[in-house]
């Protein structure tokens, strides 16, 4: 046990008794010095017992007395668990003086204890006011914004406050003249304390009567294996605690301003014993204890809804079937309460409570007992009680094939590892009923997959479950009774038709064939480029051609399949002719417009700039404030999937790699154009992206994808607010962007965002709105939920567009694209950004028998001018000897 945890400064007299009892033996070569603290406590100072008082005229290292915590920390030596290095601190506010690029105070020695010389933790304050991008920054991402950073193991703090006052006022009751207003109202990552050391394991951190003050990410102790908090206070908004192997809080107050206090508990969970939760929501909402599904232990916890806005308490926003939590005597506003969903939690019995003592949870293999509990009662067979069972995530098996091996382990590891397994269905079979591992084999003879529940239980009734989906055995894929045929209707739609033998003795199976559409160079299917794909086992029998298909043939590749088969032999069908401009609906430039819901969008890596084709890649713009690596070449930057939080409830194209980008190339001249995008950021507070360090979404318009010139609307997370984004219009010339409008802060980039950008002559316009209801904080800040922007532009004849995302892409930070619509108008005389005149530009549609030479002779007056024609249309023509009927070639006068 850390002897410092027995300290309790209830008053000066008691403090003196306790501190005298803790006098640390001095080394023989160092004479101990005696002093009296301001509260009357007698202290014996030595190389391992230092004293800090800001009222001292100067540091006095010979007598182990210092004016600042920094000076004492610099003089500290490594302690041990039996004899810690102690720094006693007199009451005052001690500024940590962090800089823009570094923390102010490091504790770099092992077994260091910071002990405030007052029973009131508010009297001794270690303070800073730096947050991510607001007083702290880093070129590599997350800023060093911690008030205090620990790199040694065995750290202990007692009777003091560690606060980061970036987003919260410093209130010092002992001397109000030292109060300090918060640095900013924009909530950002501002850690009170952090810890980490790549060269050693950090373990056994303890906090007693400590106040930990900040808002977002208060505790950054994810690298600490075991931590114990007693009689303490922790406050924050989201993500203000979690991590490690297991952290335990006892008789501690947790004050939550928003709904996700725990980022993720440690490997073995996080425990709250005899603790109080103060919920102070500004708006109605659900308290989801852990942002990421985690094992939590809540023993005698009392929740109080301070503002009447708490709708429910939930284990996690997206519970996982194999992760279980445990509760005993939970109350909300004084009444018994069951945390939701009930199927993911166990209400403990009296007989099971011995498993949830501080000692049983933290003892590990070395018997750590920071609370000084009676270890005789925490025995059970083998000296520990089962508190949790870790189970694998859900899995799938197929009847007739190798089963799934499931492993489970009881925590703590010292508890008897005796597990009993069971199934809730006879459509699967267990290889054994006892042991730490079993194999589950499928016995499903039906047509549809079924989900079975596998349960593992310990001797004291603690259990956990996982799901196994059991598929029936494979049968042969369906055979074609009629091969695929591809036709282009008079309305321009392409359709592939075929017939399969889907019959079986019980009826007819559903067609789940995989159909991929390509644009190809000729009737032989040369040089295929993906145009549309099948998703979710829904065959894409039809395809709507776009301008990128003009002059190209279409090909459909059909791989026959149903629910009980793998894919069979792929057959291909090619259209009998190339797509012409007449196949597209509308007239003139309107034929080049399109709408997509992204359901059939080919999201695989495609880095080439091809006319009428999407480039799908990643890009790290030059204006980024931090260094990051874009997604690797070959990896799909986007995925068609459902997101979480603001992007839950439906599928769309969601960012999968950092720097995800889409570019759409057009080579003919256009006049005005418009882009309408529907999007769902996963962030739901209006901030849009993970951090305010250059993370944004840009929508390009009137854009030349080759030179990267044109215009854009940028939506960027701002340091001005933690509940809004900035909308700004940009001009790009050769990849370099500059703002051409003032930024407008708005809540329009929230779930249900609709973004419109368009041109009218020499004006660029944008407007955006969100269907999300504003929070009370957004209303109080006077932030609009709609925004309109405009700026004069020089104009150009470009028709390309694009989307660039620079934000992080971890779950919760992504952006989902739901629908995109693009319209065009015919070109008028305009100027390109580079100053090249496009006045008088026109197009020529390739006809049967045309060559570049014959077109040049007829349109430009000489066959030798085919070179000009080729240069003007390089992105459309890959081989000057190969052009296609229906292609529209640009001709400049």
Automatic annotation (TrEMBL):
PROSITE patterns: LYSM. CDD domains: LysM (cd00118). Residues 842-891 form the LysM domain. Pfam families: LysM. It comes from the Bacteria. Keywords: Signal. Residues 1-28 form the signal peptide. The keyword Transcription does not apply. This is LysM domain-containing protein. It comes from Paenibacillus mucilaginosus K02.
